[in-house]
Amino acid sequence: AAGRVFAVQAFLDIPASFWLWAGFAIFTVAGGAGVAFSQNIVYSAFSLLATFVGMVALFAMMSADFLAVVQLMIYVGGILVVILFAVMLTNKIGEIRRSNPSSNKVIGVLLLVGLGALMFAAVLGYKWPTRASEPFAPTTELIGRALLGEYLLPFEIAGVMLLAALVAAVVVARKEARSDDMVARAEETQR
Q: What is the mean pLDDT of the segment spanning 140-162?
């Protein structure tokens, strides 16, 4: 009986912030699992929304206000909306029962279990430093000083690389559109 009382007392001593964090973490991982295991690409896209929103909450709980806002604005507000529009505007995507088929499930499960065990062992084997919790302080100034100071060159290189990737995507898309137009014209002239 004393063991049960101790277990209940230990359970009650866990702060509410941990339970809130655990709830958001489970929500985020469940969304990621929905993305990975869904057979329908529309459901995968909506599961990605759950994952991104869960990440916003986790960043906010870690006092990473800038990352939370960036995650919300760029990933949820921008990238996910583009993905959803692309999926929804795809011709007859709703009629397909399995638009995202899985293959090699056995190998995937084995990899999942192996990598999960490896990560679990790494987390348990590491001596985690502890420190007193600090009051919430905005991180925007520190990030701005780092990006425009010590990390200015890598920041600019990343910007140029993203611009090059965007231009390359436009060029590839134009080539595909031109070749599709040529095929359509050739079929039209043969009729």
A: 89
d(CA 18, CA 25): 10
H helices of the chain, where?
2-12, 16-37, 41-61, 65-70, 80-89, 105-125, 140-147, 152-190
Task: Report residue 122 as tokens.
Answer: 């790494």
Whether residue 65 contacts residue 138, with contact meaning beta carbons closer than 8 Å, is answered with yes
- Residue 56 and residue 76 in contact, taking contact as beta carbons nearer than 8 Å: yes
More reliable by pLDDT, 93 or 4:
4
Task: Give the C-alpha separation, 139 to 63, whole Å.
Answer: 8
Cα–Cα dist 71/66, whole Å: 8
d(CA 166, CA 160): 10
pLDDT at residue 99 in the model: 54
Phi-psi map region of 129: left, alpha, beta (phi>0 left; psi -120 to 50 alpha): beta
Length of the chain: 191
Residue tagged 């990352």 (tokens): 67
- The pTM assigned to this predicted structure is 0.61
